[in-house]
Specification:
2 copies of one chain form a homodimer. By secondary structure, chain A is of the alpha/beta class. Chain A is built from 11 helices and 11 strands. Chain A has 2 domains: 152 residues, Isopropylmalate Dehydrogenase (3-Layer(aba) Sandwich), CATH 3.40.718.10; 138 residues, Isopropylmalate Dehydrogenase (3-Layer(aba) Sandwich). The first copy, chain A, has an 11-stranded mixed β-sheet, sandwiched between helices. In chain A, helix 1 links the parallel strand 1 and strand 2.
């Protein structure tokens, strides 16, 4: 398999991306070809300097999309950027997955327009892995791609999240919950009240009902769905718990698990090929983990599973 | 002044309520008459047992509204309950504030229908105090009373919260932010996008723009507004940080400040008289703090300030 990696994306690119590759190659068997997008004159000596050898291909990309550029405009105007070239490779099948810690908006626009949305999926979504207090992990989605949602969007996020939890996180028969302000059916805002019966009637998921803010870090559900406004606030609050406790030197294994480097980036779910977006402040461990997740998405053929599930819905 | 306290509300009533009274009386000068609603045959020996003396009046209430009773029905059917009698006293001016750690829904229904909403206020709101990592505190609202909001609701919450922050939390010229998914104007869901210009144009508040989930525990804003769905999730997540770290014996002054007993209950803002709702698991410290907040709301004449601000808006 061929995994594409934008070497120019993120605050510490390309050095930390290179170190992430070295970590990945040190831990995994060499069945993967890594295709690196970026400035060849910069990358060739960097790989040598970091002693990185293996099945690696550099694809020269003369431009870089900055972290604060307007996504659509930047993708259009910088067709030689590492993100644009990467998506071209993904769309044409020269790579099987694409990873970047660069401009999030450009990655989302690229994911939605360079490659296709899975047939039947109304809106792709982004998720985050959430640490649970008992050592397990869960998935929360949407975490910001869809600030306003319709009930059916949440229902689809539940299915996409369940498949990701099953095949990538290794959770059999994942429990799905609706993030809400109370436990009982009928609670919530208009969206949550309307989403509940859809989730309850969805035979493709294992819906267990509502969970609340107090349950986010408890092992009550494996997959929790919400619109992207609340999900984004929850994600950034969870990240800040790590930042604040780390700065205050409050040490505990549970708090360490809030470090996003544990998990790597967030996959864009609902598009037809694996795309993973990293945090701007990704360091080597995050890059390593993103490559590992991309490899797992390819190995498990997650995309075919998602396509089959949505075809099933369409036929039902 | 006369402060009314429901002695029968909360998981540890009436014992912890009584102990809270003792704590309050030990710390404050005796200018307050405490009016206690509950079963006289239970309360009289309890006060003696706990050595509570002072300016205290017991008002017999033969019934109790349970924590899980339907609010409207319970208030209607149990007119001799401590909550119903308390609101009757508040509505007729026999007490100046009413506190209960009992059935939250019944307290909200009582607050909105027994006493009036301040003229000009579209929807009352409930708030929570949020600990900031630098030792300060901020206010977040709405935290669950209004799961669906219109932009003008958020604008009014900003004014109500600003007045509470100024007079009760002692924060001069409180900075107001809109909880959002990004810093820039124009970010957010439809509600946040529409609320931003209203907040920006509101000359009665000190609007500083958007804050994000990562800023909730940082000292960026003194008052943060959002609809009650997201606010409720944030509140319950914050509470769970304390619960989880406490259970794991992760000790730190910052984490201790997530203990809601620090702050007491949540006032219902936008109604014409002080009403404070305590957590069901309130213990003595929480009751003490709720009495202190009620006293401060009366002493500072916060209600008149709120009425004047909304009259000002109406006349403007």
């Amino acid at each position: 398999m061929n995994i594409g990696l934008d070497m120019m994306g993120g605050d510490f690119a390309p050095l930390e991306a290179a170190r992430g590759i070295r970590l990945y190659l040190g831990e995994h068997s060499k069945t993967t070809t890594l295709v690196l997008f970026g400035d060849e004159a910069l990358l060739t000596p960097l790989l040598a300097q970091e002693n990185i050898t293996g099945d690696i291909q550099i694809v020269h990309a003369a431009q870089v999309i900055g972290m604060h550029e307007h996504p659509t405009r930047a993708l259009k105007e910088k067709q030689q950027s590492s993100i644009a070239v990467g998506f071209h490779y993904l769309a044409t099948g020269k790579i099987d997955a694409f990873i970047s810690a660069g401009n999030t908006g450009a990655m989302l626009v690229g994911a939605m327009f360079s490659i296709k949305v899975i047939e039947g999926v109304l809106r792709p979504t982004i998720s985050t892995v959430i640490p649970k207090e008992n050592g397990k992990t869960g998935l929360l989605l949407d975490v910001g791609l869809n600030a306003d949602c319709k009930p059916e969007n949440l229902n689809q996020f539940a299915l996409l999240g369940s498949l990701y939890a099953r095949y990538i996180l290794g959770i059999g028969h994942p429990r799905v919950s609706l993030l809400n302000v109370g436990e009982e059916e009928g609670k919530g805002n208009i969206l949550a009240q309307a989403a509940y019966p859809l989730l309850k009637a969805n035979s493709q998921i294992n819906f267990i009902g509502n969970t609340e803010g107090r349950d986010v870090f408890l092992d009550k559900a494996d997959v929790t769905v919400c619109e992207g406004f609340t999900g984004n606030v929850v994600l950034k609050m969870a990240e800040s718990v790590y930042d604040i406790t780390h700065a205050k030197q409050i040490e505990h294994e549970f708090l360490d698990r809030f470090n996003f480097e544990y998990y790597g980036g967030t996959p864009v779910l609902g598009v037809s090929k694996p795309v993973i977006i990293g945090h701007g402040i990704s360091k080597s461990n995050a890059f390593k983990n993103m490559i590992a997740v991309a490899a797992k998405m390819i190995e498990t053929d997650l995309m075919s599973k998602m396509k089959a599930s949505f075809t099933g819905t369409a036929n039902a």
